[in-house]
Design goal:
The structure holds three protein chains of three kinds.
Chain A: H1 8-12, H2 16-22, E1 28-30, E2 34-37, E3 48-54, E4 59-66, E5 73-78, E6 83-91, E7 97-105, E8 108-116
Parallel strand pairs in A: 1-8
Antiparallel strand pairs in A: 2-3, 3-6, 4-5, 4-7, 7-8
Chain B: E1 6-12, E2 15-21, E3 44-51, E4 54-61, E5 70-76, E6 83-90, E7 95-101
Antiparallel strand pairs in B: 1-2, 2-5, 3-4, 3-6, 6-7
Chain C: H1 7-17, E1 26-31, H2 64-70, H3 78-83, H4 88-95, H5 101-113, E2 119-122, H6 131-135, H7 139-148, E3 152-153, H8 163-173, E4 179-180, E5 186-187, E6 198-203, E7 206-213, H9 218-221, E8 230-231, H10 236-248, E9 253-258, H11 262-271, E10 277-280, E11 291-295, E12 298-304, E13 311-320, E14 323-333, H12 343-353, H13 357-361, E15 363-367, H14 380-393, E16 397-402, E17 414-416, H15 417-424, E18 431-437, H16 438-453, E19 464-469, E20 471-475, E21 485-490, E22 493-494, E23 500-506, H17 511-516, H18 521-532, E24 534-535, E25 544-545
Parallel strand pairs in C: 1-2, 2-3, 3-4, 7-9, 9-10, 10-12, 15-24, 16-23, 20-25
Antiparallel strand pairs in C: 1-13, 5-8, 6-7, 11-12, 13-14, 15-17, 16-19, 18-23, 20-21, 21-22
Classes of the chains: A mainly beta, B mainly beta, C alpha/beta.
The complex binds manganese (II) ion (MN) (2 copies).
Protein name (chain B): Thiosulfate oxidation carrier complex protein SoxZ
Pfam family, one (chain B): SoxZ
């Protein structure tokens, strides 16, 4: 296998657009074919589970972004012909923020967004 | 040497579900120590997974991935008894490879 | 039945009231959020339970007359007293205490008597809420639930006994007797199921399934370190999977025993298909008639059975040829004076309490006004706790969590140590004194306000607003996140975001607070009560609430 490179520019992007450009995309359409599986309220901002699934054919790449983190991109994944269009990991979030999933399928980029709330906790019924 | 990963690979209907728990501090580079000095970033950068010599998954992590990273992916074409191999490399070029048999 | 009728007449009517004829062939009995109240108590329902947006004026966000009207209950009746705060003192004096496991046991037996095969469901918040539950590590409630004949339960506050203790009870005491269910609790490593997600039982020839839904936000609302290896969450997708799975296995009736809180249950019922009824708890709403929620697969009933052992829900289904043809639901209030105590249960409760009676019975003070807790913003017992915190800790501001459990006291009653523990008995009772900047105070209020008033129920945690002492503020519940709180003042002066204030509080969820180990709140309140001896009728420190006028969840 070829040596895996780390896309420094993408990981330094501050916004969705900057990350998208660094990943080689120009625009990303919203897509209902992408599902973000993340909690509505994070149990622990330091460990927020985020899963991304798509039903799109020829999924090539999936990226997980946290809008309000110092750098937006948390992780990105390259799918081979054998990889199922799914990935899950856990990310750090300093505050309530949108989480974006960027998906490249058949050469085009798509995006889906979900808000995850980070709270101080306490109280209850 | 880096601590071992926990890797679990399970096959159903020709699809192998791989779950990995790595052991890594994933230092962000944003934190300061008690003397006020910034703790340099130290995090995994790349992860690759192979099965029967073929790459089945590849990922890149930034410092925002949680400490002791978790990763879950699925691939086609594996069978029970196959060996899945997972390798990570971090920004200090430390690396670790662990394997699991598909069950 | 008018308020001042003769007691005997009331009792005859009550006996008839509890004669609930069997309907159909599938039966579920449900109690929830008893908060370890083994003995009869007084319990005042809230006068403020606001709903906004889609929840405006809808069940469960109805109080007083609005609730009576929506559920067709006549004013000044036994049921009106059971479900509302109206005429609380007079009605409580007439009808007496509510709940108590010995009385509940008699009622359960009566219902099971003409409902063969009926399953008794415990919605959780059972092992916490009293001195004896705290001191016995929940063992008193475990024994009482086994004696009561609970078949199935799902948890919330149970988790504050810690993972090890919960597992011990489930694997030893409950083994082969009570199914402890939670489809939404997984391990933190590989996401494996911790408890059984559901059980399938055969009842009168019909296969029925019960799926458990634990409180989704346990590691947020309560200390995370107590469940360090487990993760929760709502998990709609997995719920749908479980429903499909039990249907595929032949279940003709599917019940979710839920601790989501009612607003979350209502949303879940609109999204997940194939559930016949969600029998819920956590938000402590005493809801007399089920809400029918339409979804793409049909209709799901949503019920909520109040708190503190005050109610028993009875849900009957008529199942014909594998299909539900009809149903009946009744939320029976448990009036202790009108249901004889079960002898065996009474003996068990006595045995549990004997070692602690002296400690529980200590008279600390007498109250001149009603003491209660429920309400979105404050309750008189919370005000008492705040006053105690500020006095004993010499703090200018106090915070007390918006818990919904805690019993009520009538004017003239002695406040005993037991009553104080009914409001405070938790496994992280430490008081804290923090030098806090004004902007941090605002951040805290905003954060909690969003947990209560976020327009999307999945972003709510189901408690009430933090109670505050000293500080005044204005709240706009319909405002955006971080923009609901304004005009915070202390002694008439605006709070300075950069100034530091001395703030007392209790029930910290952070692990560092455990190490610091401040004096338990019950000791602080007891100290204060012994000192003042008489508690005057409480003037509640309430925020100015914008846009609440005319809300059916607000008693003006
Ligand atoms: Mn409760
Ligand atoms: Mn609860």
């Amino acid at each position: 296998a070829e040596a895996a490179a780390w896309n420094k520019a993408a990981f330094e992007g501050k916004t969705l657009d900057e990350v998208l450009k660094a990943l080689g995309g120009s625009s990303a359409d919203k897509s209902g074919a992408i599902t973000i599986n993340a909690p509505d309220i994070a149990e622990n901002g330091a460990v927020v589970p985020v899963g991304v699934t798509t039903t799109m054919a020829k999924t090539q790449q999936i990226a997980i972004l946290v809008e309000k983190n110092p750098s937006a991109l948390a992780a990105q994944f390259i799918m081979t012909a054998d990889t199922e269009p799914f990935v899950a990991s856990r990310v750090k979030m300093g505050q309530t923020s949108n989480v974006h999933a960027l998906v490249k399928a058949d050469g085009k980029w798509f995006v889906s967004t979900k808000e995850v709330k980070v709270t101080l906790g306490g109280c209850g019924g | 040497m880096a601590d071992p990963m926990r890797v679990r690979a399970q096959e159903t209907g020709g699809i192998v579900d791989v779950k990995v728990l790595m052991k890594h501090d994933m230092e962000t580079g944003q934190r300061k120590d008690s003397s006020g000095k910034t703790i340099p970033a130290h995090h995994i950068t790349t992860i690759t997974a192979t099965c029967k010599g073929k790459q089945v998954f590849q990922g890149e992590f930034g410092p925002a991935v949680s400490k002791d990273p978790f990763l879950n992916f699925k691939f086609k074409g594996g069978a029970k008894g196959d060996e899945v191999s997972v390798t990570w490399v971090d920004n200090k070029n430390d690396t670790r490879t662990d394997k699991a048999k598909v069950s | 039945m008018a308020l001042n009728t003769d007691y005997a007449q009331a009792q005859t009517a009550a006996n008839k009231f509890y004669d609930l004829p069997r309907f159909g062939n599938v039966h579920f009995l449900h109690f929830t959020d008893c908060h370890a109240q083994l003995k009869p108590i007084y319990f005042r329902e809230p006068g403020v339970n606001l709903g906004f947006g889609d929840q405006f004026g809808k069940t469960p966000h109805l109080v007083g007359e609005h609730l009576l009207k929506a559920h067709n209950i006549k004013p000044n009746t036994l049921e009106a007293h059971a479900f509302t705060y109206l005429n609380f003192e007079k009605a409580a004096a007439t009808y007496g205490k509510v709940g108590g496991f010995a009385h509940l046991a008699t009622l359960v037996k009566k219902m099971k008597g003409n409902r063969p095969g009926a399953l008794l469901l415990d919605g959780g918040d059972t092992w916490q809420g009293s001195g004896t539950a705290l001191w016995t590590n929940g063992q008193d409630m475990v024994d009482a639930c086994l004696a009561l004949g609970v078949d199935i339960m799902t948890p919330h506050w149970e988790m504050t006994l810690g993972e090890e203790r919960v597992k011990e009870i489930v694997e030893k005491d409950f083994k082969g007797k009570i199914s402890f269910l939670a489809q939404n609790i997984k391990t933190n490593d590989f996401g494996d199921q911790v408890f059984d997600p559901y059980v399938i039982r055969e009842m009168n020839g019909v296969k029925v399934a019960v799926i458990g839904q634990a409180f989704p936000y346990t590691p947020i609302a309560n200390p995370r370190y107590m469940v360090a290896n487990w993760t929760f969450g709502i998990q709609d997708d997995n719920m749908q999977k479980m429903v499909n799975e039990v249907r595929a296995k032949g279940a003709k009736v599917v019940i979710v025993l839920s601790h989501n809180g009612m607003d979350v249950d209502l949303k879940m019922a609109s999204r997940v298909t194939g559930i016949d009824a969600i029998m819920g708890g956590h938000t402590h709403d005493g809801v007399p008639t089920p809400v029918k929620v339409k979804n793409s697969g049909g209709v799901t009933l949503v019920t909520n059975a109040g708190s503190n052992g005050k109610y028993l829900g009875v849900l009957d289904f008529k199942v014909n040829g594998g299909k539900i043809a009809d149903f009946r639901y009744k939320l029976l209030p448990v009036f202790s004076d009108m249901i004889p105590a079960d002898t065996a249960m009474n003996k068990l409760i006595d045995k549990i309490r004997t070692p602690y009676e002296t400690k529980l019975g200590e008279k600390l003070a007498v109250t001149e006004g009603t003491l209660y807790r429920r309400g979105n913003f404050n309750g008189s017992f919370d005000q008492l706790i705040l006053d105690g915190l500020m006095a004993v800790k010499n703090a200018e501001i106090a915070f007390s969590p918006g818990f919904r459990w805690g019993t009520s006291l009538l004017p003239g009653q002695a406040i005993t140590m037991e009553h104080v523990l009914d409001q405070t008995a938790i496994t992280y009772p430490w008081t804290t004194v923090t030098m806090m900047k004004g902007d941090m105070i605002k951040t805290i209020l905003e954060d909690i306000a969003d947990n209560l008033f976020n327009p999307d129920p999945y972003y709510q945690q189901g408690g009430d607003m933090v109670r505050v002492g000293g500080l005044q503020y204005t709240i706009n519940p319909m405002g955006e996140a971080n923009k609901r709180i304004s005009n915070m003042t202390l002694n008439g002066k605006l709070i300075d975001p950069n100034k530091t204030y001395k703030v007392a509080g209790w029930a910290p969820v952070a692990e560092e607070a455990k190490a610091a180990g401040g004096e338990p709140i019950w000791d602080v309140v007891a100290k204060y009560l012994r000192d003042i001896k008489t508690v005057k009728a409480k003037q509640l420190n309430m925020p100015i609430i914008e846009g609440a006028k005319g809300n059916p969840g607000f008693a003006a």
